[in-house]
Here is the input.
Amino acid sequence: MRTFDDNFAEIHSTDLTDGCPRRVQLRWEGKLLPHAPTALVRGMLAGSACELLHENYLHKTDCHAWEEERVISLIEEVVSAGWSDTQTSLSDDGRIITDSVEKNIESIKSEVAKVLCAYVKHLGPLFVQTKLIGCETPCRLDLEHDGSSFSFASHTDLIVRDVANVFGYGKGRVLIIDWKWRMEAPTKAYLSRNMQFAMYWLMGLRGKFKIADWSGFTSIADCENPQMVWLHLPYLKPYSRKTIAKDKDGNQVAYKKGDIRPTTSILRAVNFLPENEERVAKALVNRVEMYKAGFFPAIPEPVRCANCEAESFCPRYDTASIHGDKNE
Ligand code: SF4
Here is the structure.
């Protein structure tokens, strides 16, 4: 049986990037309600379906140029297969979908399908010109600091090489892309300090990736400075009202209701600078040292606490008894 200290053998990115260290502690102690709410299920479903799209279609065919009906049928296929994969993953993790998910699963699938149709239509013409390196790629990073070793592990959603510079970050550049389904799009100030992205970037520079089962963990070739990209999936939905926004060239444009957002709004890039490599490594190590010292501060935040699977176990200051005392 896994003990609390086993978690230090290989720190996962989710343990570093959780906005509340107390939740990490409670997760390591096994104190989480095993529910799978809508946000989690929708994100997993979208991720599984995107993975199937990239592995089977987007880099092999011009499926973005297919007739609408054929694209819709393709998306139905990947969403259905993605839902099977999601159910398997949830079951493997011992998670149970909530009543709300059970009731609304068809509308969740339909929402994901609409976004993925837009994904194929608007990003497909770009991705078909790139070389797929991997989806859901396991990755590892080992760091040495003050005579101690630290190991980190994660999975990156999507890695491609932009051989024709269609995304504009540089010809031949490796792009490490994370599919995100969040309410809020990230700001530059947030992304520039995002530990998950910084970890993936450092992994691209110094870490190892399992690109194929037969290959084992190896470095990515010609990956001097990978480009990190947050792909904000909900922004593939068209504007719901007239909006003034900057286009990809930085010009102010008036978009109408129903227009698709500019690609630069959907793809949020962050340029980590090579001179900050050591600073990133130290930030990762510092977080682990904080945990090793037993310091897991609670950082309450209105939305996060309301949706927190550990909330029932997290000490509070208004009642003595907390177990099972879930805030509504
Ligand atoms: S309830 Fe809030 S403070 Fe407590 S672990 Fe969850 S997110 Fe952190």
